[in-house]
Amino acid sequence: MARLFIFGLGYTAGRIAQALRGAGWLVDATGSSGNISFDDEDAVRGAIAGASHTLSSVPPADGSDPVIDKYVELLGGKWLGYLSSTGVYGDVDGAWVDEASPTGGGRRTARADCDARWMEMGARVFRLPGIYGPGRSAFDRVREGKAHRIDLPGQVFSRIHVDDIVSGVVAAIEGGAPSGAYNLSDDLPTSQNTVIEEACRLLGVDPPPLKTIDEADLSPMARGFYAENRRVANIKAKRVLGWKPAYPTYREGLAAIMAPA
């Protein structure tokens, strides 16, 4: 029986695990929802030894990759996957980026370094833009009073519904995709303002007022989010993985979240 080991069973990786378990896979994982402690070296060693596939969703820590630093000797000969970020491309003033675009020049230098290390190990590196889905979407920010509309003309972002990440990673696993980077993003980069406005329309509430970035009093992390401007191309993932997003734009994604189960 096929077996996967996941480092970091969080929001996205948890859904990947659920999908593969539904397809008959055995899945072990570290993380708050996992069954193995990251620091239990014997348990991790045993689980990886019995797994054909290993996937990491663990972000950088102290400028380095905790999984590679601690367990690199266990990963040889395995199918490797890594959930990375399109933040590795940095700011390109709204231009399109693809997997051949330069990396490492943005604010997320540690992420870019970890991305490169996994690439060197022969992993399938899934570069993800802003992730949204049930329990983590513009609806939640609006309801919590945390939604913002920032007056930054020309600012756009790419995003991806969590279910489309799942289908992309599963396609790579089941299709025997070659190692390398894959952008999993939707088809319509757009401003965060537009997404917030659509969420408000669906909720039947007024959108928050338009503010300058200084007036919005954003956290340093949120300000960093607005410091970069790019459009992320997904053509390679469609061509090589045979992947097609079920939610090609924020409209379909938000409507699906809004719809009753």
Helices, strands, pairings?
Elements: E1 3-7, H1 11-22, E2 26-29, H2 41-49, E3 53-56, H3 66-71, E4 79-85, E5 96-97, H4 109-120, E6 124-128, E7 130-132, H5 138-143, E8 149-150, E9 159-161, H6 162-174, E10 180-183, H7 192-203, E11 210-211, H8 220-226, E12 231-232, H9 235-241, H10 250-258
Parallel strand pairs: 1-2, 1-3, 3-4, 4-6, 5-12, 6-10, 7-9, 8-11
Protein name: SDR family NAD(P)-dependent oxidoreductase
Keywords: NAD
Verbal overview:
It is a single chain. With 261 residues, this protein is of the alpha/beta class. 36% of the residues lie in helices and 16% in strands. The protein is built from ten helices and twelve strands. The chain has a six-stranded parallel β-sheet with strand order 2-1-3-4-6-10, sandwiched between helices. A two-stranded parallel sheet has the order 5-12. It has a two-stranded parallel sheet with strand order 7-9. Helix 1 links the parallel strand 1 and strand 2. It is globular, with a radius of gyration of 19 Å. The two termini are 32 Å apart. 38% of the residues are buried.
Tag the structure with descriptive keywords.
alpha/beta, two-stranded parallel ribbon, 261 residues
- The chain-level structural class is alpha/beta
Report how far the terminal alpha carbons are from each other.
32 Å
Unreliable residue runs: none
Q: What's the gyration radius in Å?
A: 19 Å
Can you count the helices? 10
Which term fits the overall shape? globular
Proportion in helices: 25-40%
Question: Overall mean pLDDT score?
Answer: 96
Organism: Qipengyuania psychrotolerans
InterPro entries: NAD(P)-bd_dom_sf
Keywords: NAD
Protein name: SDR family NAD(P)-dependent oxidoreductase
